[in-house]
Write a structure and sequence with these properties.
Number of strands: 7
CATH architecture: 3-Layer(aba) Sandwich
Number of helices: 5
Strand content: 15-25%
CATH superfamily: P-loop containing nucleotide triphosphate hydrolases
Oligomer: single chain
Radius of gyration: 16 Å
Structural class: alpha/beta
Distance between the termini: 21 Å
């Protein structure tokens, strides 16, 4: 059987359905190729809403008919690369949260060298994992469609996220933008048997 895409990038706005689409796609690829399902959760339960969202995602994965292996990894994503092999189909949710965690886990000033080191750390870590697994699916928030506030911190953050998105889409075999639960193809083609 011909192997499917090795890197898939999925983005969308808040509550767009991107995570649901990503989970279904991950399950589809794993079941077709006989791969093991992995979920890398980057969320940190910092407030009540986030705690509830994490709890719901954990419950959904535990009660699904497919068995997920979940790894909680909020920073330093590359350090877990050795846990995976070419039988693994992996979903990372989400790149936006990973970036937030990396930026705010340090008291460092957001100067250009620091921002470049964070961008490189995230891209390198993701590529380390991608090289080891059968398929890696990345989810990220599409915050670049939101109105830009006249705030230097917000502008710096969205510019950095945009650079990360561009590099990941360049590396990806397929890329989707999910709007109102509908995946729109940005790169590559929708896999047979549309979800």
């Amino acid at each position: 059987m011909e192997a499917g895409p090795s890197l898939i990038f999925i983005s969308g706005g808040v509550r767009s359905g991107k995570s649901s689409f990503a989970e279904k796609l991950t399950i589809k690829i794993a079941s077709e190729e006989g791969g093991r399902l992995h979920y890398i959760a980057t969320g940190v339960p910092f407030d009540k809403e986030m705690k509830e969202r994490i709890k719901k995602h954990q419950h959904d994965r535990k009660t699904a008919k497919y068995q997920w292996i979940t790894i909680e990894q909020s920073t330093n994503i590359g350090t877990i690369a050795d846990r995976f092999n070419n039988r693994d189909v992996l979903l990372l949710d989400c790149v936006t949260t990973l970036l937030n965690n990396e930026l705010f886990s340090s008291e460092h000033r957001w100067d250009p060298p620091f921002l470049e080191s964070i961008r490189e750390k995230i891209i390198t870590g993701i590529m380390l994992i991608k090289k080891r697994v059968r398929t890696m699916i990345l989810v990220s928030n599409e915050v670049l469609h939101e109105p830009m506030l006249e705030n230097e911190l917000v502008f710096t953050y969205t510019r950095l996220l945009g650079q990360i998105h561009q590099q990941l889409v360049k590396e990806a075999d397929q890329a989707f933008l999910v709007e109102a639960g509908v995946p729109l193809v940005m790169k590559g083609a929708l896999l047979q048997g549309t979800l």
